[in-house]
Design goal:
Number of strands: 8
Order of helices and strands: HHEEEEEHEEEHHHHHHHH
Radius of gyration: 23 Å
CATH architecture of the largest domain: Alpha-Beta Complex
Number of domains: 2
Oligomer: single chain
Length: 258
């Protein structure tokens, strides 16, 4: 859980109260997209802490067009923000448009919003480029008295950027997903540990790592957890982490023998 600075917490609490009524009224009146952009700009400034004149821009070119808004700090674009009309439900086409802007601009983080619903995406620059919905929330349903709700706002505040709060939250979600845990369970070190524990408990039972892995894959875990793109991504991350851990262990061992 992120720790909110007291000044930021106060600003978020007061801003939430102020803008919830504004956003709700805008949705009821079904205002157009350009007027919704005005509200989002005010929210980015008064609620999220960005300077309206130097850090929020509507002039960020993406190929031959312009995105609705962008957060640009010290010459670097930190967020691409795609805004839809307050009364419009966010659909798959809107998501595709928003993440396309981010990938074409080479920006890691993209926000899609109509004022009420906020969706935060991470662009993954691989081959091919992909995206991941990190989290979403309904602004009108947030409770000013709940720290967890204020934390959802803090992740995209100016103050969180220098501390990599959003990136850390994304990593937390990745490593505590069913795909990551599933791949961790069938990784070689864990399977080997299971075999050794079984051997201690029941010395007469002879099983191999391959047999244990097959049992877990086919009869213990759900197929969706171990197959597919997300499972493969989790597997790569785990293998990379184990390799890094092995290198650190070897380095420590060598340093103690010198």
């Amino acid at each position: 859980m992120a720790t909110l600075p007291p000044k930021v917490q106060t600003r978020l609490a007061s801003g939430l109260k102020k803008f919830q009524s504004i956003v709700s009224a805008a949705r009821t009146k079904d205002i157009n997209e350009s007027d919704t952009v005005v509200i989002i700009t005010d929210m980015l400034s008064d609620l999220f802490g960005y300077d309206k004149y130097s850090e929020i821009t509507s002039e960020q070119a993406v190929k031959k067009t312009f995105c609705d808004l962008a957060i640009k700090i010290d010459g670097k674009v930190r967020f691409i923000i795609e805004v839809k009309a307050a009364g419009l439900d966010l659909k798959e086409d809107h998501i595709r448009q928003a993440v396309d802007y981010g990938s074409n601009a080479g920006v890691d983080w993209v926000i899609l919003t109509n004022g009420s619903v906020w969706k935060v995406f991470k662009i993954i620059f691989g081959k091919p480029v992909s995206n991941e919905l990190v989290y979403e929330f309904d602004f009108t349903q947030l409770n000013v008295k709940k720290d967890n709700d204020l934390e959802l706002l803090y992740y995209v505040c100016k103050e969180s950027l220098g501390k990599s709060v959003l990136a850390d939250f994304h990593l937390q979600k990745q490593t505590f997903s069913k795909f990551f845990v599933g791949q961790l369970i069938i990784s070689e070190p864990i399977i080997d540990s299971i075999r050794k524990i079984m051997k201690k408990l029941y010395p007469e039972v002879k099983v191999s790592n391959e047999e244990i892995c097959s049992l877990i894959e086919n009869e213990v875990l759900k197929r969706e957890v171990i197959d597919g793109e997300k499972a493969e991504e989790a597997k790569k991350k785990i293998n990379k982490a184990f390799k890094s851990l092995a290198k650190e262990t070897i380095a420590k061992s060598e340093s103690t023998t010198l």
